[in-house]
């Protein structure tokens, strides 16, 4: 067995733990069944969940058995958050999200072999519990004064209050840990650092009933410049669902990682060896402009989440857009996503090249556009434009609707003919 705790520590993936030495010993002693839970609060997981998803994958690769929980019950209740009371979602909606999240999580772990993962849903043991059972068997173990001292509860009380529903959430998550211990011998729970309160409540609850369990959290991923991790340049969340965030945008998100962050992100997200990561970091320090670390990170994560074909497409598209490859070989969906990311001008009829360069924002005025053409720095579909007044013919359109405009080496925009 590899020393997974040392590896996780090297990668900066352990924030809190019940006891790091005990945890290391426990995980060194043979296969351990562990769990991590996700609540269905929407139709897709996002990049903020990736740390937990990949930590589960790492633990399985290190010889442990994952229980991947999607909270069909807890998703109906809502984990209290700073922003205030959540609105309850309809049970059918939550059930649909449970299925989507289960499908989304499945590719990251293996469901066969000795260490086969298991998908679990806390609705299976929560729905059947009666109120009397809940209050007698679970509630009796939870001192309200301790629950009140939790940071999130204090914050919510100070900000006006919290419903009994959300206040009770931690009892459900605690009961999950105990149920998974009883049913499958689960002895470790981990989650994001915001889960430490729920997780320690569960550890206490299990231990009171004689179950020897341990837990840890992964840290919140931060950016060196203080802005929130997980948003694209234009402030959109980065979702794992390709219909919500295109693989192209997903790739660009990683590719745009700041030099100050890339070393930390490689450790935390990449499955490369420590040596390979150190080499990429050293290469980045020597030649930051080559963005070797960013490229490696973007390729690896896009492949993990969207597969090799999509990754090859987005890499080809990001090169082709900037004149370093063929536009012809790209899938229509990739062209669409890439141009949307670059900025897409929609027109009902094609005007002159100069007008396109102005309307797309690549040039500030028609005279600037004419100058760009005269200087040989204006391209349509990677072909240098000779005549600023010429109107591109329909034969120039990719997939009968797109044009790629480029000014110089770096600035690209798309045109879509909408008629
Ligand atoms: N509370 C977790 C999800 C979760 C739900 C149930 C559990 O047993 C564990 C985790 C979250 O909001 O992210």
TrEMBL record:
Annotated compartments: Cytoplasm
Matches recorded under HAMAP family: Tyr_tRNA_synth_type1
Gene name, Swiss-Prot/TrEMBL: tyrS
Residues spanned by motif 'HIGH' region: 40-49
Alphabetical list of CDD domains matching this protein: S4 (cd00165), TyrRS_core (cd00805)
Organism of provenance: Actinocatenispora thailandica
High-level lineage: Bacteria, Bacillati, Actinomycetota, Actinomycetes, Micromonosporales
Domain Tyrosine--tRNA ligase SYY-like C-terminal residues, every copy: 355-410
Name assigned to this protein: Tyrosine--tRNA ligase
Enzyme Commission designation: 6.1.1.1
Enzymatic reactions: tRNA(Tyr) + L-tyrosine + ATP = L-tyrosyl-tRNA(Tyr) + AMP + diphosphate + H(+)
NCBIfam families hit by this protein: tyrS
Keywords: Aminoacyl-tRNA synthetase, ATP-binding, Cytoplasm, Ligase, Nucleotide-binding, Protein biosynthesis, RNA-binding
């Amino acid at each position: 067995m590899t020393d997974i705790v040392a590896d996780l520590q090297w990668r900066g993936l352990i924030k809190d733990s019940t006891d790091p030495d005990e945890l290391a010993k426990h995980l060194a002693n043979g296969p351990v069944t562990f769990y991590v839970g996700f609540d269905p609060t929407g139709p897709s997981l996002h990049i903020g969940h990736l740390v937990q998803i990949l930590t589960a994958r790492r633990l399985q690769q290190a010889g442990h058995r994952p229980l991947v929980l999607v909270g069909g019950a807890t998703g109906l209740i809502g984990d209290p958050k700073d922003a205030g009371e959540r609105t309850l979602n309809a049970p059918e909606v939550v059930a649909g999200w449970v299925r989507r999240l289960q499908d989304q999580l499945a590719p990251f772990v293996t469901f066969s072999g000795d260490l086969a993962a298991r998908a679990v849903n806390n609705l299976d043991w929560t729905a059947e519990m009666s109120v009397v059972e809940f209050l007698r068997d679970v509630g009796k173990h939870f001192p309200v004064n301790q629950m009140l001292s939790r940071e999130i509860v204090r914050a919510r009380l100070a900000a006006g209050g919290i419903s009994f529903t959300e206040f009770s959430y931690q009892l459900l998550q605690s009961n999950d840990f105990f149920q998974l211990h009883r049913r499958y011998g689960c002895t470790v729970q981990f989650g994001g650092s915001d889960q430490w309160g729920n997780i320690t409540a569960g550890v206490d609850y299990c231990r009171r009933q004689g179950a020897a369990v341990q837990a840890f959290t992964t840290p919140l991923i931060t950016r060196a410049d203080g802005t929130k991790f997980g948003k694209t340049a234009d402030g959109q969340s980065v979702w794992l669902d390709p219909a919500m965030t295109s693989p192209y945008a997903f790739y660009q998100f990683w590719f745009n990682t700041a030099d100050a962050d890339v070393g930390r992100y490689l450790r935390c997200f990449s499955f490369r060896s420590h040596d390979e990561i150190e080499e990429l970091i050293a290469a980045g320090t020597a030649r930051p402009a080559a963005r070797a670390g960013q490229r490696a990170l973007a390729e690896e994560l896009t492949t993990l989440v969207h597969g090799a074909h999509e990754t090859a497409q987005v890499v080809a598209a990001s090169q082709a857009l900037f004149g370093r490859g063929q536009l012809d070989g790209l899938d229509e969906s990739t062209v669409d996503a890439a141009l949307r990311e670059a900025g897409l001008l929609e027109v009902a009829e094609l005007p002159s090249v100069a007008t396109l360069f102005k309307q797309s924002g690549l040039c500030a005025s028609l005279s600037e556009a004419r100058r760009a053409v005269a200087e040989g720095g204006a391209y349509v579909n990677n072909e240098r434009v000779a005549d600023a007044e010429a109107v591109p013919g329909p034969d120039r359109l990719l997939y009968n609707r797109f044009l790629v405009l480029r000014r110089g080496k770096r600035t690209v925009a798309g045109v879509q003919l909408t008629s």
